[in-house]
Amino acid sequence: MHSIVHKRPGRSQQQGVVLIVTLVLLVIITLIAVAGASDISLQSKMARNSQFSLNAYNQAFSEINAQVGVMKENQAMLIEAANNDSYALAAEDLVMSVPEYEQSAELSFLGEGDAIIYGEKLGGGNPYRFELDSEATVANTGAKSDQTQGLIYHGPSL
Asked: Within the chain, which residues score under 50 in pLDDT?
């Protein structure tokens, strides 16, 4: 009778295959980790830029609100804008100015005459229409916001 002898591959051949499979798996896991890290980095940059844009918006809008408060107390800017069609606010006139932002604001005179709000004409007198534009840029980021507010002065003649 013949006996069948099964030869198993040598132990050194098996270890070589395991090494190759392990290296392939390690490369795949490394590629997945690198892709995930770059995706997280991109998302972080997007969130930071979104925050810069929101800060610029808030700064520009806050300046408009502050300037409206100033104009309620003192109509000098309104008179200057009405006489010259516009009035660019100087840096010292900016109420909400902070070093991290480049800011500007301008008050433009649009004319006098009927003021219509929500389809209704304001009665009495001859109101003056203005537009207040405020721009804020977060320094060294490029994030910028330009906000505009319409104003109606309904009071004594300027």
From this structure: none
